[in-house]
């Protein structure tokens, strides 16, 4: 009956993306064995609603995608694509709430949803260097000036322990170039040190020291520079 009501609502009132999102959440709650159908509804909803996607829809979508991946129903790259689509729209959603000044409640709900989406993906077993590096390399080469992309690359490669890769090193250097900070300079310095590029490492340690305001952090940078 509940499914019929949702179907009738779409027929007579439209808003298909919004309603199918609600339908997908309800379906997974009451009929978890129909996860594939729920996933299809949720996927449609996110592609249609984009940053207007409700928090519960985004989290449930990622949950269903991970389940299907572990069950062998979808490929690893489909899961990765799903994750980046959801991440993109939910970060846009958060930016919208912050700019609008809706208040901490909306901001906090969306931040919680983003964290949940990331946790589902990172615990899926799909977030490994073998997948992430070839996925990100063409995107990095195509848009090296996209700061949001660079943050995604560096944060996810770090979380997946891919910090020894050349892509990570290039991405943190480019991120520092676009948004110079003590923390970013420090990351570049550490990676250059691991590669025994001592002059370059020292250069970035000094930049990190110049930009760092915290005396404890600054002392650590001095120690490592020494």
What does this structure look like?
The chain is an all-alpha fold and 226 residues long. 80% of the residues lie in helices and 0% in strands. It is built from twelve helices and no strands. The protein has helices at 2-13, 16-30, 35-49, 55-70, 76-100, 104-122, 129-142, 147-159, 166-178, 182-194, 198-211, 215-225. Helix 1 (2-13) packs antiparallel against helix 2, helix 2 (16-30) crosses helix 4 and helix 3 crosses helix 4. The longest helix has 25 residues, at 76-100. The protein is elongated.
- Beta-strand portion reads under 5%
Low confidence ranges: none
Reading the helices and strands in chain order gives HHHHHHHHHHHH
Assembly status:
single chain
- Helix content range of the residues, please? over 70%
Structural class given helices, strands, pairing? mainly alpha
What about the largest sheet?
Answer: none
- Count every beta strand, where a strand is a DSSP E run of 2 or more residues: 0
Query: Mind telling me the C-alpha Rg?
Result: 21 Å
Specify the overall morphology.
Answer: elongated
């Amino acid at each position: 009956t509940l499914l019929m009501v949702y179907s009738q609502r779409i027929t007579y009132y439209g808003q298909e993306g919004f309603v199918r999102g609600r339908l997908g959440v309800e379906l997974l709650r009451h009929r978890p064995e129909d996860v594939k159908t729920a996933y299809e509804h949720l996927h449609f909803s996110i592609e249609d609603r984009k940053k207007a996607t409700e928090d519960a829809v985004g989290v449930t979508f990622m949950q269903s995608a991970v389940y299907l991946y572990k069950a062998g129903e979808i490929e690893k790259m489909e899961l990765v694509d799903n994750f980046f689509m959801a991440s993109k729209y939910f970060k846009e959603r958060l930016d919208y709430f912050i700019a609008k000044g809706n208040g901490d409640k909306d901001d906090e709900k969306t931040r919680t949803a983003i964290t949940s989406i990331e946790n589902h993906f990172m615990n899926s077993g799909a977030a490994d260097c073998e997948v992430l590096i070839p996925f990100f390399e063409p995107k990095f080469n195509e848009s090296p000036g996209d700061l949001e992309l660079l943050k995604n690359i560096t944060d996810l490669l770090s979380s997946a322990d891919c910090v020894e890769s050349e892509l990570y090193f290039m991405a943190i250097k480019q991120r520092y170039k676009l948004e110079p900070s003590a923390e970013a300079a420090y990351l570049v310095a550490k990676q250059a040190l691991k590669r025994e590029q001592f002059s370059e490492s020292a250069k970035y340690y000094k930049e990190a020291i110049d930009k760092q305001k915290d005396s404890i952090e600054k002392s650590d940078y001095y120690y490592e520079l020494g």
